[in-house]
Amino acid sequence: MDISRGISGDMFISALADAGVDFGGLEQKFHQAGIEVRLDMLPEKRKGICGRLARITWENAQPLRTLEHILVLIHKMDISEPVRQKSIRAFHRLAEVEAEVHGIGKEQVHFHEVGALDTLVDIIGAFWGLEAIGAIEVTSSPMPWFSGEARICHGLVSLPAPATSILMQGKKIRPSDFDWEIITPTGALIVDQLVSCFESGFQGKLIASGLGFGSKDAEFNALRVFLWEGEEDQFIQDRVWLLESNIDHLTGEELGHFFQKIMEAGALDVIFLQGIMKKNRPGGQLQVMCDDENLVRVREQFFRHTLTLGLRISRISRNILPRKDSSVRMEGEEIRAREAIFSGKSYLRPEMESLASLSGEKGLSLVQMRLKKNQS
Questions:
Q1: What's the predicted TM-score (pTM) here?
Q2: Those residues with Cβ within 8 angstroms of residue 91's Cβ, 6 or more apart along the chain or in another chain
Q3: Residue 153 — pLDDT band, cuts 50, 70, 90?
Q4: Any idea which architecture 236-320 has in CATH?
């Protein structure tokens, strides 16, 4: 997406609508959950260019909502589990940032500043819309730095707003001459939660594009999104989270228990790399890999079972061989296997649990099973 002219939650979902996403189904899901909100994606024309403008409205006065209230609403929604978990993680992140800004616990944060219902629609709408359009990765142009002042409920503050500036940390920034709020806190949150890398363009086939206008009709405040398809590749590409911490205070028994608990929490892989820590202590580095859906749970279990003082968390890319469930015949029996495809050829690998079960039945060790010739 091109955020050189700004980004907000409304701009993002209206750009998705202009690219072909029908948000009527999402509005119905809000109604079914008892959230009477109207979501209109209005045609808009500015400076002779057509796009969409999102208008989110409701009739009844809305109460101040805490993170707990927001999470209850999300759990009531009839949405896919990946969209639900991503939305929950985004609101946890927003609550953490607001808590840091105001010096309070995140459970005390009220989402009055960004507008709880408006933000709820924007955040769920962002993940729901990307799922609807089939997007698997989001890249962005660098974030434009801006200045000026804005009035919030606590008074006049300098821009970027405090929450926005925290969410922009660690992102690729470029200078600009904008002296008004070109990036809102919700827009910065969307970048923080969605964008895997900051690039000036892409390589592949352009499928669709969309233009979403901001609420301020100034200096062509608009967000452009592009749906593109990468060049065909024999590998499957995805992105996962890598959590790392240096450990020198756990016993071997505690490490073994950690391995068990972190896998039960949904980790894809865990490894312990031995090394020498500070003060010449023997220790090592724990590395845990997990997907989006399990990040919150895996992170919590990492802290719970190590009591480490900090984690390094990064987003990494993977190339994966296409694979599927299959079976292989050994010792006259069909057992479960995984089939991987490489350069047009299939390779079968028996599942360890099935292989171990069969070896026990046949009175053979795993090594004998693997090395035995002339399988029948």
A1: 0.65
A2: 67, 70, 71, 74, 123
A3: low
A4: 2-Layer Sandwich (3.30)
